[in-house]
């Protein structure tokens, strides 16, 4: 058995392995999705390690590059995402070896930490190899008990707000809480071009951009807000307009409730979701330091749901 970096030529074999190991589940395994995540990411191509037996890939571990910003300083990070071991080779320690070897590789390029949102099945495995459980992201919900309607299908035209997106990404932010660095092209990659879900937006094209998606689940139709970005021109008039547009979409989509998950952020305070308390029932976040001088558990995090949704 050999271990080596994954290449673009390996993608068809990797997708086959993902299907054999994990099945399709709710997120389809496809070359388009893999390329979007691991090749098109504006933070850079993903570090990928594969295990190979007799010219066949029987294990893969990929981590997504990410960058955060705090008070003008860039924090280089990675997100643990895709991993798969062929059923015939499971239980032999390949997951641990691939993960730890990849961490050793990224430690040399200035990466400070790894984060992810594991499910209940994978969480124990991560904790055994150095991850720490930070906690759950706070969640705010507002129910629309009288909602009814035709469940309109939305299709936002992202080409109409490219100037605004450019201005948002160019804005010099120095947040006290750690937030994703808006690299050029990030918002189009993350939302407009995302093959996972159709993201929609509310915007005046000049001062604010609220991003959401409609999700049908066990509790009914959800209007899930993932991010809100504002410029200095966002004021009381724009806030009132935003609330009006959001209320209209809640009605048109026949959403049973609106959700907003994230840590304290001045932009998110612009969204009024009523009097229900904030609950710590959002995604479980785990962290692992990569560099010796990094202590990610002690950092002042300001995640939005857009940083943590399933990849």
Write the layout of secondary structure elements.
Blueprint: E1 2-5, H1 11-22, H2 31-38, E2 48-53, E3 56-70, E4 73-85, H3 94-106, E5 113-116, H4 123-128, E6 132-136, E7 139-143, H5 162-170, E8 179-180, H6 186-192, E9 200-203, E10 208-217, E11 220-230, H7 236-252, E12 257-261, E13 284-289, H8 305-308
Parallel strand pairs: 4-5, 11-12
Antiparallel strand pairs: 1-2, 2-3, 3-4, 3-8, 5-13, 6-13, 7-12, 9-10, 10-11
Tell me what the structure shows:
The protein is α+β, with helices and mostly antiparallel strands and 311 residues long. It has two domains: 2-135 and 285-295, Gcn5-related N-acetyltransferase (GNAT) (Aminopeptidase), CATH 3.40.630; 139-270, Aminopeptidase. The chain contains eight helices and 13 strands. Strands 1, 2, 3, 4, 5, 6, 8 and 13 form an eight-stranded mixed sheet that branches. The protein has a five-stranded mixed sheet with strand order 7-12-11-10-9. A hairpin with a 4-residue loop joins strand 9 and strand 10. The two termini are 29 Å apart.
- Taken in chain order, the helices and strands follow as EHHEEEHEHEEHEHEEEHEEH
Which spans of ≥5 residues are poorly predicted at pLDDT below 50? Answer: none
Straight-line N-to-C gap? 29 Å
Look at the structure and name the CATH superfamily of the largest domain: Gcn5-related N-acetyltransferase (GNAT)
Which secondary-structure class do the elements indicate?
alpha+beta
User: CATH class of the largest domain, please?
Assistant: Alpha Beta
Mind telling me the C-alpha Rg?
Answer: 20 Å
Number of spatially distinct domains: 2
CA-based shape: globular
Biggest sheet layout: 8 strands, mixed
- Helix count, DSSP H or I runs of 4 or more residues: 8
Write the CATH architecture name of the largest domain.
Answer: 3-Layer(aba) Sandwich
Approximately how much helix is present in the residues? 10-25%
CATH topology of the largest domain: Aminopeptidase
Strand content: 25-35%
Give a count of the beta strands, DSSP E runs of length 2 or more: 13
């Amino acid at each position: 058995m050999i271990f080596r970096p994954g290449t673009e030529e390996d993608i068809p074999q990797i997708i086959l392995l993902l299907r054999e190991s994990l099945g399709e589940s709710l997120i389809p395994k496809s070359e388009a999705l893999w390329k979007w995540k691991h090749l098109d990411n504006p933070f850079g191509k993903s570090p990928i390690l594969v295990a190979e037996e007799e010219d066949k890939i029987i294990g893969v571990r990929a981590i997504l590059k990410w960058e955060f910003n705090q008070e003008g300083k860039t924090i280089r990070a990675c997100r643990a995402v895709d991993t798969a071991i062929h059923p015939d080779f499971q239980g032999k320690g390949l997951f641990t070896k691939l993960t730890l070897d990849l961490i050793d590789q990224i430690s040399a390029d200035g990466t400070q930490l790894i984060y992810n949102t594991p499910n209940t099945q994978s969480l124990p495995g991560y904790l055994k190899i150095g991850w720490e459980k930070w906690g759950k992201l706070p969640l705010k919900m507002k129910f629309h008990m009288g909602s009814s309607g035709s469940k309109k299908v939305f299709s936002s035209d992202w080409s109409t707000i490219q100037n605004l997106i450019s201005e948002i990404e160019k804005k010099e932010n120095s947040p006290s809480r750690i937030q994703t660095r808006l690299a050029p092209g990030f918002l189009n990659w993350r939302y407009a071009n995302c093959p996972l879900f159709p993201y929609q937006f509310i915007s005046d094209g000049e001062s604010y951009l609220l991003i959401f998606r409609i999700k049908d689940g066990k509790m009914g139709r959800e209007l899930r807000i993932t991010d809100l970005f504002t410029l200095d021109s966002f004021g009381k008039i724009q806030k009132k307009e935003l609330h009006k547009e959001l209320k209209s979409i809640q009605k048109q989509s026949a959403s049973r409730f609106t959700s907003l998950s994230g840590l304290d952020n001045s932009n998110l305070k612009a969204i009024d979701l009523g009097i229900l308390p904030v609950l710590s029932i959002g995604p479980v976040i785990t962290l692992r330091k990569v560099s010796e001088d990094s202590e990610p558990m002690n950092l002042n995090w300001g995640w939005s749901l857009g940083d943590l949704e399933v990849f």
